[in-house]
Structure prediction request, 372 residues.
Amino acid sequence: MAWFILTNIFSALIALTRIVLLSDQEKDLEILILRQQLNILQRKHKIPIKPNRTEKMILSVLTTRLKRITNRSTTQLRSIIRIFQPGTVLRWHRELVRLKWTYKRKNKGGRPPINKELESLILRLAKENPRWGYGKIEGELLKLGFKVSQTTIQNTLRRNSILPAPVRGGSISWRHLMTHYMEQILATDFFTVETIGLQTLYVLFFIELGTRRVYISGVTPNPDALWATQQARQLLWELDDSDTDFRFLIHDNDTKFSAIFDAVCRSEGFHVIHTPFRAPNANTFAERWIRTIREECLDLILILNAGHLRRVLQEFIDDYYNVTRPHQGIEQRSPLSSGQPQNTGSVHRRKVLGGIINDYYRAPAQPSLLLN
Prediction:
């Protein structure tokens, strides 16, 4: 009984802490969402509950707004969405958006549109040959039996957001950089972790795009440009002693990545690439790793302090993520894997971080003893 009371008190304290940290806008949205669900429950006595279209619209719009401003995951929305599944409410919003953009197109006359096959061929030629202009593409299509004007080619490329040849082929494109030079690219970024004492800790990390290997460079509650530069310098020195051959470094426009930071990286032979402003997708590998470390590790553990966070990150990365975790982006291999996986021997479970993560492996078969 005493343990039950203590558990409820601890849960209430955590809930209170979360509420205190919410902004006024977040609290207002949560209240509106809960009230909308109560209104539905007061009028709906049948099971299962079937809300009408207006109720779906109000609840889905409020939930989507809360998810966007707080960046909460679908799992985290369960504390607010009680009578429906959060995924169901978000699906209602997607259906509303789809209905908004579904309309009948009116035929305005003029030249008939080209067929899908020809349009796909024009796009293919433009993407595979970034230095080809409209005239070159016209000639190539004529050789293949398609008579298309340069105006039609221009309109097709513009409609699909493909730039003209001088701009499209004037420099190394982002896609070309990501595919051809991936093995030579490092990306870096910061992410934050809140401790149980409400202290904000900043983590600086680097990730290899080719192998997905991650390096934790430092953890601090007070990061600045000099600290970030020193952490980068130490990591680059370590990489110099290894067999790696990196030539590009990607980071955003955070003020902690100062001109001195870039100068240190260039002195080590790196070409520094700044992502566009407010474009996290330009550093998508780093952003995806932050999501992974949160969902698989940090969201499941209460961090006590900086030292505790360092130990958790070290165990997750050095004992699991870089060594044995399968990665979909590299054909279900792990960054430091070597050779073919074993297909013989009994399967065993290894607990990582006290059982937060289960890792499975095959124990080598014991050789039979030969009797004389």
User: Anything to note?
Assistant: The chain has three domains: 12-100, 116-171, 179-330. Confidence is low (pLDDT under 50) at residues 368-372. Residues 125 and 140 are 9 Å apart (CA to CA).
